[in-house]
Every structure is written in C-alpha cells, then in structure tokens.
Structure to design on (926 residues):
C-alpha cells in the first residue's frame, strides 16, 4: 500500500463523507425538533437541483447567483412544506407525520414528472468543478475539494450559531425537551420553521454538489440521498447533530471500503450490505455512535 | 301519513319474527357479523362481475381483490401493532418471485431465465402448492430476520423497516440467478389467478385477519399499540407478540404476491417498491388502519378512485395534456386530508357489524327499542 | 375580581384523553402572595399548573391572567405575558451548560446590562450556579439542578412564578434550603404559586392554600385555619376527606 493510494482513498472518503454529512445534518435538524423522519427531504434536494437546471440552462446568470437561487429554492420548499403539510399535524401522532411526509414526497415526485419531465435532464456544471487538479501525485476533480471546503465552512458557521446565538441555544434546548423550552418562552412555530429552513438550506447545498457529481436531475433523484441520509443518521445517532456528521463520514468510509474489498460479483449487492450493516447497527446500538440527550416526549 | 305508518307497522309485523331470528343469530356470534358482511359484499360483487362477463371489468376486480389481500396483510401488522411496516411490500415481492419459480415448468424457466440456478430450474410444483410455498418462503425470511427488529419502535423502527425494504429490493433486483436481476421476469403460460381464485383466497384471508385481531394474540398486540409500557407491565411480551403478527403478515403478503405474479405474468423487483407501498398505505389510511373493515373499504374506495382517475388521465393524455402520475397526486392529497380531519379513516377505526348497520337504519333502532322494552317488561314480571 | 388579582381560575375542567383530571376548579392568586396547593399524588395539583401554563388545553372553564382571558393560549405566549413555570422533575436541558439553560430562560430578552445585573442578582441567591456556570446541566447534582430550574424561571422576571414540587427527591437539608429560598423570594415580593406534597412545610410559609383531592378543591383558606379545620393526616391517608388514594 503506498501513500498515493492512501491519499486517494482519503480524498474520496472525505469528499463523499462531507456530502453525506450535510445530507444527514439536514435530516437531523428536523428530526431533533419535531421527531419527524422527513421522507420528503430528498425532494427538497430535487427542487433545488431543478432550479439549478433551469437557471443554468435558460439564463445567463453567473454561477454564484445560480447557486444562491438553488439554495433559496431549497429553503423555500422546506419552509412552505412545513407550513402547508406538517403544521396541521403538530398535535397528531408521529405516524401521521411520517405518512404525511411520505405523501408529500410522492406528490412532489409526481409534480416533477408532470410539470417538467419524467426523463432526466442534464444539469450544467461550471467548468472549474470538473477541472482536474493534482495533489501529491493524486489527480482529483476540483469539486471534491470544494465540497470538503464548503462543508468545513458550513459546519463551522453552524457550530457558531448553535453555540453562541440565543436562537441556536434555544434550538438545542428545544430538541432536548420541546415542552420545557416552550415554557421558557421559546416559540414552537419559530423553532420548527427554522429547523425546516436550515434543512432546506442544507438540501440546497447538497443539490449543487450532488448534481455536479451525477450531472443530471430527474424526478426520482431524491431517493438515493435520502437513503444515504438515513444510514448516516442511524450510524451517528438520531439525536445528536455532531453524531449525524460523524455518521456521514463513517458511511463514506464503509462504502469506500466495501467498494474496494467486495469481489466484483458481489459489488451490485453493495447497497444491500450497507443496509444490512445499518440494521445491525440499529439492533445493536439503537442510539447510534454519539448519544444525544433527549426525551421521548413529542412536540405538543 | 296514517296509511304509511300502518303500512310500516304491518311490514314490521310481518318481518319481525324473521328479523329477530337473524339478529339472534348475529347476537350469538356478534363478532362474526363483520366477517359475514365483508365476505358477502365481496362475493356478491364478484359474482355479479363474473355474470357480466366483461373482461376489462373482470380484470379490474381480480387485480383489486389481490390488492385487497395485500392491504389486509398489511393491516394485520400495522393496524394491530401501530407500527408502520415499510418492508411489507418486500415480502409481497419475495412471495411473487418464489411462487412463480415454483410453478413454472423447467422448460419455460430455461428459456426465460437462462442464468437461473439448475436446482431451481428443476423445481416444479402445481399452482396451489406453489402459491403456498411462495408465501412460506416470504414468511420464513420474515421469521429469520424479524426477531431483533421487533424491539424497535418509533423513528428507529421506521428507519429499520425502511432499510429492510431496500435490502430486499436490492436482493430481488440484483440476484440474477434467481430473479433474472433487473430484467423483467416473465412467467409464460396462461393466467392462473382467475377471478374465483383471487376471490377464494381473499375470503380466507378476511376470515384469518379478522379472527387474528379478535384472538388473544391480537388483543395483546393492540394493547402494546395503545400503551407499550402498560402492556409490558401486565406481562405481555411485546416483542413476541409483534413477531408473530409480523411473520403472519409476511405470509399473507407472500400469498398476495404469488397471486399477483400469476395474474400479471411478468414482474420486476421494481413492482414491489415505493409506489406499491404507497398504494397499500393510502388504502389503509383512507379506510382506517385500525380495523379490518377499514382495509376492506379503503381498498374498495381507492381502487375505484384510481380506476376513475386513470381513465381521466388517459383521456387527458389523449387530448394532448401530459397527465400521467396525477392519480398518485390526487390519492396523496386525499390521504393527507384524511390524516388531518379524519385520522381514523372512513370507518373511524371501527368494524362494520350487523349492529352498526342496524343502528343506522331507523326501523332497526325502533326494533331495538322494542326489544329493550320487552326485556324491561320481562324483568318487571 | 379586584385589581390586585393576578390569576383567576374559574370552573376549570381538564382531561387526559377520556380521563377527567380536574373537575371545575376555581382559585385565584393575588399580587405578592404565596399561594400553596397541597394534596396527594394524582389529586390534580400538577395538572392545574400545566393547564395554567398552557401545556395542557382545558376542556372548559376560564383562566384570567393579569385581567386577560388566557385559557388555551400557547405556553410561549403565556411566558411572554409574565408567567414562569418551574416544571416538576426540574427538566433542565442536560447537555446545555448552566449559562445556556439560563439563556433559554431569558428567551426574548436582550442580553444587555440589565440581564447581566439580574444574573449577578441570581448568583447572590444561588452562588453555586456561578461556580458551575460553564458546566453541562446534566452534570449538576439534584439540588443544583433544582436551583438552576428556579433560576431559569426567575431570569425572565416573571409576574407569577409557579413551582411544581420543588422539593421532590431532595435530601432534607436541601429541602430546607429550597424552602428558605422560597421565603427569600416571597420577601422580594414575587408572586408565587407553589405545588407541594410536603404540606406541612408548604402551609408553614404560604399566605393562603388550596387543598386538592381527586381533581377538586377540597378546602381553601388561610393555612392556619386549614390546619385547624382539616385533619391533614386524614387527607393524606385517605380518610373521610381524602377519597380513594
């Protein structure tokens, strides 16, 4: 094993892991506050990707603006889907919320099929994304480094917000004990809206890098990142923000190791192995790698 | 006015002895009335459609009946345990593939799926046995993996079941030596699931699912649904109870899958994934997940709605509008509306029974009052 | 209702699903008073606090706070109006530091000089919190957590402070400390509604008291009269006034 292969492996794990960490973070933000496993999260990403596609193809906007609007689209869909579909359920059972998020996901997918096209569309990617660069003899596209950098910046900002702003502290409090937080004057609607907005924001960022990697957008594309998010969240711990980030990187690591070690005849079963590991994780360690402090009580 | 009253009185007088006899019968086995009514509805509709002899409508009914078996199996676990079982369609898929492999002749198999393991190619069973064997395979898979999963509830439980569905789906879509991989799996031969086969199995499944709910096992399971901790503290082993229901539900799912593959005659792993799950879920939610009647009427309603919408969709597409997929949107919106305003579905989570029908009918309530009066008089005497 | 009444509850009915927990409770609290609610477990003491604070929605009845009808309002709105409930079992945020717990208590307040002054004031009441300022709440001892919970309620300068079983699960020495603290708060003219199982102690410091039993008010009045007229022990042991326990 030489250093070059090791470095290549590390870059792969870190870039994939960064993307996965952002995906799972978006899921956990909502889960922490509402205890909702949001099945429609994948469609938040799809919406952003479509906006990237439309703006990239039909307008001459500079890349930065295109990205900005893509992210804003994610924020908007997160915010409005909560307002329209989830808010009426606040007082109902968790299962009703879960089923609703599944229904919202189906509705959005069908709307994309109907309104745009069932076929996949090529998303234009800025040239510098795919520019190959060389680090210590390892050649890698620039976007791999960009995602790592973006994630580092985003995580730092999020940590600062969550640690030092009153809103962030209140969100952490609310995800530990929602009722008590409300008793201290923390408004429930605000907390939930902010959680969905952050979730949508992260979905927007993910959409940029996801569509850059796959080069296309199609109505069902949300499924894969959603599943990745689930796994990462489960590995890291449903109740902990740092846990979900760790889970993203661990998932990328396991996935890369499986790709390298599985015999080619079994490679097509990689996802099955991955999910089998997840199930084993859930059974053996339902609280994940990092255990957050939480109460089983629900949003009321 | 007077005349009408007289007439109705007369009618009542004439009918009363007979009605009393029937109601006595149903009072005796009050719980059975649900099963009798549901089966009666199904058989009457089935007979009528068979008599009509229009292939198009017959197909809709047969497919609908197979779907009914699927929803009943789904309701068996979800309705009684309160846990969303995402993996259910996976078992339907396993049953579909397994029974097809069992029932196909070696010659057809060699032709259709050349990659298949030789020992599977040589396996050949008659259709009814193959159907049962397919269901048993689904059940066995569930029995092997389910035990440790039954401990998990809430979000973690939901994600586990979801992950399980994906594992099953990947296996079905990648295992070329068994399922022909991602390619279409064609059964060949003629359609073995006829209207009467589907109907017969559905009748049996209605009975099984209903009596499961009323059995002591079903009662215990419902207790764990309502309050896990209280049920546990009264000595109910909730893992064991859930496990039994889960395995039973997988069996019925497998059965439905077998019927499906011998009806549709060509399947892929994608036929047993999210959109099918969504269809079953919408039926159970709209009907009312807590009761067998809910699954029954939910299936009936949503099937009719889907057929109607599909026609509208076809019409729109023909007139130049792109409308494919709008059916799912309507069903999904309807489901959300139900969840907001009528979370227990059209049945309100109750069972349809002879009594609940009588209560609706004005003459029925009169009769009941009379019976009560009689009873009171008897007591006085 | 006079100007001095800060909280007036009339004919309050609350149910948990199909189980009726409160049957027509009427009570009031005046400015500057320390009112104590006593009764056995399950008598409805905590339920009434939760209903007042907006955690539970009343089935019927009225709750007037500072002259406004507030029945059915959200907890966060009531907090903004000047209510603070220190919940039973303390319910501090375990992974948040003492500082952060207090900041949530002051949600909606600007963290300015007056906040700093109030914080200093609280530290004079609870010196231990200053020592533990940067520690996670979950690492504090039971007594310290209770102090933090009370401090978290006080930091918003509430017009009505509701304490739900503050002495629960604490050692006798700590119970003494908590009651001394409540007396201190009363001397600062803070209006307090106190729910306590430890009736003797609670009645000893209260201006007025309500005795709950089976979701109804069994007795109300001055603590002294109450102690004279009602055989407290009989209530507690399920005697004639106590109903079934």
């Amino acid at each position: 094993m030489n250093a070059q292969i090791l470095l290549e492996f590390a870059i792969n794990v870190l870039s994939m892991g960064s993307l996965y960490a952002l995906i799972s973070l978006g899921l956990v933000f909502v889960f922490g506050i509402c205890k909702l496993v949001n099945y429609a999260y994948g469609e938040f990403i799809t919406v952003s990707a479509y906006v990237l596609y439309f703006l990239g193809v039909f307008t001459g906007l500079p890349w930065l603006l295109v990205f900005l609007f893509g992210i804003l689209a994610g924020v908007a869909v997160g915010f409005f889907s909560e307002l329209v579909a989830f808010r009426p359920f606040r007082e109902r059972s968790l299962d009703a919320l879960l089923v609703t998020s599944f229904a919202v996901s189906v509705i959005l997918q069908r709307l994309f099929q109907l309104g745009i096209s069932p076929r996949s569309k090529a998303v234009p990617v800025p040239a510098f994304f795919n520019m190959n660069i060389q680090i210590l003899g390892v050649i890698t596209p620039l976007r791999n480094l960009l995602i790592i950098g973006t994630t580092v910046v985003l995580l730092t900002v999020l940590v600062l917000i969550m640690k030092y702003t009153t809103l962030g502290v209140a969100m952490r409090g609310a995800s530990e004990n929602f009722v008590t937080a409300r008793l201290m004057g923390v408004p429930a609607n605000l907390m939930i809206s902010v959680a969905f907005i952050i979730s949508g924001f992260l979905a927007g960022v993910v959409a940029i890098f996801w569509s850059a990697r796959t080069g296309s957008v199609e109505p069902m594309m949300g499924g894969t990142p959603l599943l990745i998010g689930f796994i990462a969240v489960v590995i890291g711990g449903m109740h902990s923000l740092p846990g979900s980030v760790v889970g993203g990187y661990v998932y990328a690591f396991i996935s890369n190791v499986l790709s390298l070690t599985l015999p080619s005849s079994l490679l097509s079963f990689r996802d099955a192995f991955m999910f089998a590991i997840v199930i084993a994780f859930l059974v053996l360690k339902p609280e994940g790698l990092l255990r957050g402090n939480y109460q089983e009580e629900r949003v009321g | 006015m007077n005349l009408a009253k007289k007439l109705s009185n007369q009618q009542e007088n004439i009918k009363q002895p007979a009605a009393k006899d029937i109601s006595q019968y149903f009072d005796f086995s009050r719980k059975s009335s649900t099963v009798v009514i549901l089966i009666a509805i199904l058989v009457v509709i089935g007979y009528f459609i068979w008599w009509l002899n229009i292939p198009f409508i017959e197909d809709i009914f047969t497919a609908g009946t197979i779907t009914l078996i699927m929803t009943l199996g789904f309701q068996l676990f979800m309705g009684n345990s309160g846990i969303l079982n995402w993996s259910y369609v996976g078992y339907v898929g396993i049953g579909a593939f397994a029974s097809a492999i069992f029932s196909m002749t070696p010659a057809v198999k060699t032709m259709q799926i050349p990659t298949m393991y030789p020992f599977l190619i040589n396996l050949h069973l008659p259709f009814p046995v193959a159907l049962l064997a397919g269901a048993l395979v689904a059940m066995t898979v569930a029995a092997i993996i389910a035990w440790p999963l039954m401990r998990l509830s809430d979000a973690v439980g939901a994600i586990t079941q979801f992950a399980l569905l994906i594992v099953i789906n990947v296996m079905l879509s990648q295992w070329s030596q068994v399922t022909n991989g991602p390619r279409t799996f064609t059964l060949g031969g003629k359609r073995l699931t006829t209207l009467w086969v589907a109907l017969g199995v559905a009748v049996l499944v209605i009975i099984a699912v209903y009596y499961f709910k009323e059995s002591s096992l079903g009662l215990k399971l419902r207790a764990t649904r309502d309050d896990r901790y209280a049920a546990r503290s009264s000595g109910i082993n909730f893992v064991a109870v859930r496990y039994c229901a889960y395995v039973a539900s997988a069996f019925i799912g497998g059965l439905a899958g077998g019927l499906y593959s011998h009806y549709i005659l060509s399947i892929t792993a994608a036929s047993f994934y999210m959109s099918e799950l969504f269809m079953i879920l919408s039926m159970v939610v709209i009907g009312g997940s807590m009761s067998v009647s809910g699954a029954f009427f939910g299936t009936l309603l949503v099937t009719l709605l889907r057929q109607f919408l599909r026609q509208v969709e076809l019409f729109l597409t023909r007139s130049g509008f792109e409308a494919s997929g709008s059916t799912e949107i309507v069903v999904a919106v309807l489901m959300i509306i139900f969840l907001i305003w009528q979370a227990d579905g059209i049945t309100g989570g109750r069972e349809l029974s002879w009594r609940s029908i009588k209560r609706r009918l004005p003459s029925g309530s009169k009769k009941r009052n009379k019976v009560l009066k009689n009873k009171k008089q008897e007591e006085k005497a | 209702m006079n100007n001095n009444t800060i909280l007036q509850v009339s004919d309050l009915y609350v149910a948990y699903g199909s189980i009726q927990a409160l049957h027509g409770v009427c009570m009031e609290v005046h400015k500057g008073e320390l009112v104590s609610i006593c009764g056995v477990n399950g008598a409805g003491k905590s339920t009434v606090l939760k209903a007042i604070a907006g955690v539970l929605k009343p089935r019927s009845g009225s709750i007037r706070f500072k002259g406004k009808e507030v029945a059915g309002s959200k907890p966060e709105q009531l907090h903004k109006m000047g209510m603070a409930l220190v919940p039973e079992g303390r319910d501090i945020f375990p992974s948040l530091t003492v500082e952060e717990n207090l900041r949530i208590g002051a949600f909606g307040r600007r963290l300015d000089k007056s906040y700093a002054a109030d914080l200093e004031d609280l530290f004079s009441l609870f010196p231990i919190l200053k020592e533990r300022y940067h520690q996670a709440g979950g690492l504090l001892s039971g007594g310290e957590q209770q102090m933090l919970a009370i401090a978290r309620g006080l930091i918003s300068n509430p017009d009505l402070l509701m304490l739900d079983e503050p002495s629960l699960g604490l050692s006798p020495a700590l119970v003494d400390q908590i009651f001394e603290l409540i007396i201190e708060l009363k001397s600062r003219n803070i209006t307090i509604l106190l729910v306590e199982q430890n009736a003797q102690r609670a009645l000893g410091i209260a201006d007025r008291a309500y005795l709950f039993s089976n979701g109804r008010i069994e007795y109300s009045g001055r603590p002294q009269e109450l102690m004279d007229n009602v055989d407290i022990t009989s209530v507690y042991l399920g005697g004639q006034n106590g109903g079934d326990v």
Observations:
- Chain B touches chain A at residues 82, 84, 148-149, 151-152, 154-156, 158-160, 162-164, 166-167, 170-171, 174, 274-275, 278, 281-282, 285, 322-326, 328-329, 332-333, 335-336, 339-340, 343 (CB under 8 Å).
